[in-house]
């Protein structure tokens, strides 16, 4: 039971986009009946078969850490949130398809999560502007999920989907668009389910199967920050 | 002819205020949200614009700008428009947006929002009965009736905010009250938080695995059907599912604990930041100001008590009294009329600017704290309502700070409101609010340190 290996995936996004509903759907295959505001962080666990259907199939626990709050919050809240960003193996960025600001804020969210490991003192040195170079050597797999697809009118759908495609390209990530109140979007065999599986497989691979030899995945030239790197090495 | 010029000046200034309100809304209040309904932004900016125009008219009154009759006309017009907004439009839209959020009532939105508005009007009307605010010879829908009630609500709000602010200001500024928080405290709390999260995770793993095993045996989604099925369900799955519900309860308790720990950690970080801030130059300056403000606060509470106990309402305003003192006791002779005009202009101007600025800052803080993407529209409209009522009552109370000759326009337009009642009411509520804030802050301060003392 608890002897299975585990990976940690963060679920980030503005408040009200549907992270709790999404996590509930992913882990319990049911729609969340009464979503309420998340205080702090809520965790759920999904049992995932790595490389399903092949002889190398292995079961893993995927911990989905749903961190609540707004990206422009007080710095005391940001410092407290940073404690959840330790040793992350994958990030799911959630935004609301009906709210443009939530997609724009994803850049700031990803910076907040990625930078946590760079600066052990906990102080964010960036002013929040997006810098593609900071993502160039980012090795943490990302996935972009857009929610509330059902609330977009047919006529506007194309425009929204194109905009989202650009966004996903910026992050070098796959994108899934769905409605968290309808489980059929993630039904087994659908393209969304395949993308999701692929993402989780990638996360597991990065964590467990690319460790041999040379260096820590993801932090090739961060040896200066001795404390931070060592902390990651001793995660498990 | 001069009337036209005056009106165009007024309209230009109103447009300027409208623009400022619009910008404030976009840049400050709604900077993390997307404005879907422009109606909300328009209403907010319009309320702000007309409130500021009232203050502008007072300033014009003191300075003697514009024609007297056109000032009077604009006063009346402005007052009518603002009352229309505060009593009819904003409550209606608040009701409308509340109803829109509830999925069930989506079809008959208009109907329900009208119903909500009528309920509001009923309570609003009833509000005026227990107070001796009016002489009873006015009709039902006159300006005086509406303004008297708006005034009561607004003055209550002002006094509450004022009382709390007077106590909270020295409490936050002075570093004497800062609890001592060290890095080890924070680290210890963070460790506890992560441990709790780990416990939650391990329990959830058990639940997930158990559920997966049940699913693979094909029993989870099978609803027992028929007579035989019912008997089977009684004996078969009892131990497994009971175990699960027990674990689920433990998980719920642990999640509640993790929320508490999270909030406590946020609190500790905030206190640590304040300690760091108090060591800087700015911090020391504010600390000094804090002592000054605490004396001012004590004096205000004292004055409010005296006013109530001895049942007196100040008859003269500070400007005239100050001039009287300088002329009579210090023997300095100067042109009273000229100076009283300028000094009261400066004084009233300062009061207006600080109260507008203070209110906007408080509103912004409040908005950030409680709004979410669903309720942002409703909350902004509530804030617009509060802002409008606050400004209307400021006009009522500011009358006391002006010399007699400038009070005429307010008295003329607002008719026979019992202004003294408002001042008395302000003092009472201020006293109540200040004393309960002291009590509340004392309790909160006492309770906090014991939690963080690590043995």
From TrEMBL, chain A:
Keyword GTP-binding among record annotations: yes
Q: Which Pfam families match?
A: Roc
PROSITE patterns assigned to the protein according to its UniProt record, in alphabetical order: RAB
A biological process (GO) of this protein is: T cell differentiation in thymus
Any transmembrane segments, and where? none
Q: Per UniProt, which keywords does this protein have?
A: GTP-binding, Nucleotide-binding
**Molecular function (GO) terms listed?**
GTP binding; protein homodimerization activity
What top-level branch of life does the organism fall under?
Eukaryota
The family note in this entry says: Belongs to the small GTPase superfamily. Rab family.
Subunit structure, as described in the record: Homodimer. Interacts with GPR89; the interaction stabilizes GPR89. Interacts with RAP1GDS1.
* Function noted in UniProt: Required for KRAS signaling regulation and modulation of cell proliferation. Regulator of KRAS prenylation, and probably prenylation of other small GTPases. Required for lymphocyte development and function. Not required for myeloid cell development.
**Name of this protein:** Rab-like protein 3
Organism, per UniProt? Vombatus ursinus
Q: Which gene encodes it?
A: RABL3
TrEMBL record, chain B:
Q: What gene is it encoded by?
A: LOC114043365
The main location class comes to membrane
Question: Could you tell me the Gene Ontology terms of the biological process aspect for this record?
Answer: intracellular pH reduction
Where in or outside the cell?
Answer: Membrane
List the PANTHER family hit by this protein, alphabetically: G-PROTEIN COUPLED RECEPTOR 89-RELATED, GOLGI PH REGULATOR A-RELATED
The similarity comment for this entry is:
Belongs to the Golgi pH regulator (TC 1.A.38) family.
Q: What is this protein called?
A: G protein-coupled receptor 89B
Show where the Abscisic acid G-protein coupled receptor-like domain sits. 277-446
- Record-annotated Golgi pH regulator conserved domain positions: 142-207
This chain's source organism reads Vombatus ursinus (Common wombat)
- Extract the GO molecular function terms from the UniProt entry: voltage-gated monoatomic anion channel activity
Is this entry keyworded Ligase? no
Instruction: Show the stretches that span the lipid bilayer.
Output: 6-26, 38-63, 75-98, 110-127, 147-169, 288-310, 343-368, 380-402, 422-444
Q: Name one Pfam family in it.
A: ABA_GPCR
Q: Which InterPro entries match?
A: ABA_GPCR_dom (IPR025969), Golgi_pH-regulator_cons_dom (IPR022535), GPHR/GTG (IPR015672)
Q: Which UniProt keywords apply?
A: Membrane, Transmembrane, Transmembrane helix
Q: What reactions does this protein catalyze?
A: fluoride(in) = fluoride(out); iodide(out) = iodide(in); bromide(in) = bromide(out)
Q: Which domain of life is it from?
A: Eukaryota
């Amino acid at each position: 039971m608890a002897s299975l290996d585990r990976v940690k995936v963060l679920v980030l996004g503005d408040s009200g986009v549907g992270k709790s509903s999404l996590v509930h759907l992913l882990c319990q295959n049911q729609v969340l009946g009464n979503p309420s505001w998340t205080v702090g962080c809520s965790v759920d666990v999904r049992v995932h078969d790595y490389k399903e259907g092949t002889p190398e199939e292995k079961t893993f626990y995927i911990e989905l850490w749903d961190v609540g709050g707004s990206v422009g919050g007080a710095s005391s809240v940001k410092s407290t949130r940073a404690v959840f960003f330790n040793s992350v193996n994958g990030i799911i960025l959630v935004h609301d398809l009906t709210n443009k600001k939530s997609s724009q804020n994803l850049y700031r969210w990803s910076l907040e999560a990625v930078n946590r490991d760079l600066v052990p003192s906990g102080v964010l040195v960036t002013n929040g502007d997006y810098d593609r170079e900071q993502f160039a050597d980012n090795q943490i797999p990302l996935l972009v999920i857009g929610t509330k697809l059902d609330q977009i009118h047919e006529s506007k759908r194309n425009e929204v989907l194109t905009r989202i495609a650009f966004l996903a390209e910026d992050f070098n990530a796959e994108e899934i668009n769905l409605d968290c109140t309808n489980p059929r979007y993630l039904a087994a065999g659908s393209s969304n389910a395949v993308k999701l599986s692929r993402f989780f497989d990638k996360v597991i691979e990065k964590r467990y199967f690319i460790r041999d030899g040379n260096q820590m995945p993801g932090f090739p030239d961060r040896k200066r920050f001795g404390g931070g790197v060592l902390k990651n090495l001793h995660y498990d | 002819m001069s009337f036209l010029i005056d009106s165009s000046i007024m309209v230009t200034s109103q447009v300027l205020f409208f623009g400022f309100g619009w910008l404030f809304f976009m840049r400050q209040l709604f900077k993390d949200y997307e404005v879907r309904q422009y109606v909300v932004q328009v209403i907010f900016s319009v309320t702000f614009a007309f409130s500021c125009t009232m203050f502008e008219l007072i300033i014009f009154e003191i300075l003697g700008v514009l024609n007297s009759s056109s000032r009077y006309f604009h006063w009346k017009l402005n007052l009518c428009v603002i009352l229309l907004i505060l009593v009819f439009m904003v409550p209606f839209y608040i009701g409308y947006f509340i109803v829109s959020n509830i999925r069930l009532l989506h079809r008959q939105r208009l109907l329900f929002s009208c119903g909500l508005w009528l309920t509001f009007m009923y309570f609003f009307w009833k509000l005026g009965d227990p107070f001796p605010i009016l002489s009873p010879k006015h009709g039902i829908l006159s300006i005086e009736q509406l303004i008297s009630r708006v005034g009561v609500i607004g003055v209550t709000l002002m006094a509450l905010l004022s009382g709390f602010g007077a106590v909270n200001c020295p409490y936050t500024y002075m570093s004497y009250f800062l609890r001592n928080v060290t890095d080890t405290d924070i680290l210890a709390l963070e460790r506890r938080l992560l441990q709790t999260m780990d416990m939650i995770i391990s329990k959830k793993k058990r639940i997930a695995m158990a559920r997966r095993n049940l699913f693979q045996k094909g029993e989870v989604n099978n609803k027992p059907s028929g007579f035989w099925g019912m008997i089977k369900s009684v004996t078969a799955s009892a131990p497994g599912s009971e175990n699960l519900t027990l674990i689920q309860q433990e998980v719920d308790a642990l999640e509640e604990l993790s929320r508490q720990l999270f909030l406590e950690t946020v609190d500790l970080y905030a206190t640590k930041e304040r300690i760091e801030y108090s060591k800087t130059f700015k911090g020391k300056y504010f600390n000094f100001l804090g002592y000054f403000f605490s004396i001012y606060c004590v004096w205000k509470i004292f004055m409010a008590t005296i006013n109530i106990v001895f049942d007196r309402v100040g008859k003269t305003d500070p400007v005239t009294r100050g001039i009287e003192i300088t002329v009579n006791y210090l023997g300095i002779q100067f042109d009273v009329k000229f100076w009283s005009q300028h000094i009261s202009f400066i004084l009233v101007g300062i009061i207006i600017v600080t109260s507008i600025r203070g209110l906007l800052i408080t509103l912004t803080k409040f908005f950030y704290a409680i709004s979410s993407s669903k309720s942002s529209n409703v909350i902004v409209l509530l804030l617009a309502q509060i802002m409008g009522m606050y400004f209307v009552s400021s006009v009522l109370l500011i009358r006391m700070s002006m010399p007699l000759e400038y009070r005429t326009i307010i008295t003329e337009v607002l008719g026979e409101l019992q202004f003294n009642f408002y001042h008395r009411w302000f003092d009472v509520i201020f006293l109540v609010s200040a004393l309960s804030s002291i009590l509340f802050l004392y309790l909160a301060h006492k309770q906090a340190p014991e939690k963080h003392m690590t043995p």
